[in-house]
Amino acid sequence: MTRDLRICFVGDSLVAGVGDPVGLGWAGRLAARAFADGLPSTHYNLGVRRETSADIVGRWEDECARRLRHGTDLRVVLCFGVNDATHEGDRPRVAPERSAANLAAMLDRAAARGWRVLVVSPPPVADPAHSARTALLDEDFARVCRTAGVPYVSVHRSLSENAVWMREVALGDGAHPGADGYEEYAALLDPHWRAWLAASG
Asked: pTM for this one?
């Protein structure tokens, strides 16, 4: 049977690629890499600006189910957390334990659906305090994925030490880079992405 690969990229504005003048973001770049490697896919970008995990957990399954009805290899990439860690008043928009619980719930539902999942860590932003909160979420998400047996790619620390990413985020709106920043993000994800696509069953 011919492999019919379908992938939903689910998350926030950083999944949507906000700030990228060529409109690819990191998700589009990964899809292009797969195509260049001889693995074309039907990929859907379901990133929504300002959304937290509490928003995403309420919509993601239905949106993915509409797009993953057919095909022989059905997959989901999840990436969120920066908006969860954004402070409104004196507290984050979503409490860290709730963020972790939302991710765990999504992984449970994906397993029930038979969708293979890759989870990508939220990246750092220009504000150090915000990034510190996101780094803690990164650790929480890694634990959730280990428990669920789902691959997790943590690039938060690498991007925080990446001059291109941090410069572009600072020159932009404080959270979104330009094309070169997204290219750095995609390059860090690339080996994990290739390994995930190569795995089956």
From this structure: 0.97
